[in-house]
Amino acid sequence: MDPKTLPAIDPRSGFCRENSIFYSKRKPIPLPSNESLDVTTFISSRAHSGKIAFIDASSGRHLTFSQVWSAVDSVASSLSDMGIRKGHVILLLSPNSIFFPIVCLSVMSLGAIITTTNPLNTTSEISKQISDSKPVLAFTSRALLPKLAKSNLKIVLIEDVDDDNVNYSKLSPNIVTSLGEMIRKEPKPIRVKERVNQDDIATLLYSSGTTGASKGVISSHRNLIAMVQTIICRFNLEDHKFEQKFICTVPMFHIYGLVAFATGLLASGSTIIVLSKFEMDEMLSSIAKYKATYLPLVPPILVAMVNNADRIKAKYDLSSLHSVLSGGAPLSKEVIEGFLEKYPTVNILQGYGLTESTGVGASTDSLEESRRYGTAGVLSPSMEAKIVDPDSGTALPVNQTGELWLRGPTIMKGYFGNVEATASTLDSHGWLRTGDLCYIDDDGFIFVVDRLKELIKYKGYQVPPAELEALLLSHSEIVDAAVIPFPDKEVGQFPMAYVVRKDGSNLSETAIMNFVAGQVAPYKRIRRVAFIAAIPKNPSGKILRKDLIKLATSKL
């Protein structure tokens, strides 16, 4: 709804007293009216003046825009020849790569669905995702082949793009071809290509919930198109006078990396400099080498840049840098002002979003907005919000704290094969319950007060406590356990466990940490253990994490 048609809206806060909805104060994003449109076609049809699309930061290898779209056509044609059809799920297990976008765009152009997974995940964690999403084909790298060994999936090898002399059968009997072979094929007209509508599923990304069960988030082509438009409008990327270069430090398997850096920014003609994995010195040297203008990061990296500013500025030329884009948690006044003091020519922009909202929700789009310290930003274009009292369900006005609900063109379709989880997260009017306790102030700025969801944020990764608790309870010498976030300047938060041992057990902290470390991805490892007589719980049996957090941090 256009706020201009609602006279009861407060122009400062965006709040409408008649329906208790907060409306975005930003200009609404334009969306295509053509229903028969896939996100790949939408991106490829946009006019731009860019030449280089992707650069591999370590090797310098690059792909021009024409090479990208030629490769996408060839891979889509090859997939069609292999029998891939609309609605089929394709798994992509890979670190960041300049070829990651080729796979995603090709798959989505056919109306097939891309599901990505973290390369750090264990074989068991990946197997659970495969069992849930039921892909018919997987793309992966040579190093990650062992993680798919038990799946019996047909595999396309991403590496060896230029090598015709690889004996794939020696690597794995499941390898059917390589991405290089697909790219080198002359694309044929895809006669069997089915019509793709904006409402069709484009991506299936897995989001960790409080229950510990990872849920597949269904995003449509419309969701992704709206996200692309939001990004272009946010950074004013339709102005082609200046060449913009974004460093891609965020993982492309994540919603922000996939939709922004692997696909969306192509629509603006911007150049993406791809780091295969995050490494501080490689990131900084890539900014200097390729004259990057935008740097996305999470708060711990920004803090490290402040703490090591003298060494960094002596070693690296960061003069091209225009803005850093921070997400994951609001920045404090001390961090913002400390950064601006050390890097006075660089803006700080912040963003808030969820996998369920296709990475969109709120943002600060100027330094002035970021200096509203502690804010998650102003509602994104075309986004609506409610602040709802979790107990009564009543929608609240400005400056009152409740659960943030969001509605808009980027909100997911639901959770894959999980009607119950969808119903508890999305209501019948399209409102997404974010699980974040927030308030919106008189000027429309959102402030996150606490999390209903209790996810632990480790270096930007989300760690569900319940998953680790279930693992701990499988140990024969553990009676009860609770996992909490422990604050840390370097990583943001790390998982800490409170454990109740069986009578007579001498189980050590180290043994517990090693027990968990052998079964989960590195970012999920428990890094601190304390023993306790009993886990505090409320009458319904819910763990009182706040009490444990207070206990753990009281000695800091």
UniProtKB/TrEMBL annotation:
Keywords: ATP-binding, Ligase, Membrane, Nucleotide-binding, Transmembrane, Transmembrane helix. The chain crosses the membrane at residues 89-114, 253-275. GO terms for cellular component: peroxisome. InterPro entries: AMP-bd_C, AMP-bd_C_sf, AMP-binding_CS, AMP-dep_synth/lig_dom, ANL_N_sf. It comes from the Eukaryota. Residues 46-416 form the AMP-dependent synthetase/ligase domain. Residues 467-542 form the AMP-binding enzyme C-terminal domain. One of its GO terms (molecular function) is ATP binding. Belongs to the ATP-dependent AMP-binding enzyme family. This is AMP-binding enzyme, C-terminal domain. It comes from Dillenia turbinata.
